Amino acid sequence: MIRSASVKSKCLEAVARAAAYICGRQSPRGGFCFYRHGNVDEPNLADTYYAVAALRLFGAHVPHARSIASFVGRARIFGVTHLYFCAFALERLALSARVGEPALQLIRDLRVVLPVMPRSPATSGWLESTRMTVRLQKHFLAAQAATAYSPLVAFLQDDMTRSGFEIHGTLWDTYLALSIGSLLGLRGTAESAAFVDSLQRPPFGFQMTSSSTMSGIDAAYAGLRCCDLLSLPVKHEHEVIEFCLACQAANGGFAHVPGALPNLEFTYRGLQCLALLLPAIHAPGP
Length: 286
Fold this sequence. Notes:
By secondary structure, the chain is mainly α.
């Protein structure tokens, strides 16, 4: 947890610059587009969700909220990812009532199918879609039957026992698995904590894998979320902060790595990292 006043000041300045960047990506139609420039204006659901969620992290004002809600409400839904962005963009705007019956029925119809080959590269995508499915159903369906998740709970418990949620050696997949487990009332194991702890290394604070030589904003975010879910101390807080701030571009947006092109998703991740390290001023989220 950040304690130095000067570091807090630097982080809050970074938050203010990021908020200005985000607002500059808003379309007159209400949505957001990270590459909006001149006559290029192509708002989309993903950028709109990340923009709204990023602004709400620190309680910032979201401009033209009703126009955003109208844009989101008109968007076509293609699969669980679009459904997630649509529903949670409205939720972050405190307009959950606008998640209408057609969207709620789509959420009810979502199913989690366990992977045939749990250790395959496709596991990463399965974890992403499973986390979205469980979060949508837990948040928007009051009467979702707990038994619907019994096979998933058994699968995750087995994986915890065997490898501590180390799906195939990446910090990101471990974060996703821990997040799903937390939604289902499961707790991380000593094996989970040992794996995450082994990836807490300088000079960036976290590495995505045991053999990584570089890092990115996703590794920092996944590492901080894992530590939060496991109640594990962050060993290299200063390094994480310096790396995250180095990922902020001159225009206020965050990139995956220092010097790369910023976008709204990475800006959201960067601000999430600062929010996890600045809990005293972090606006509560879902």
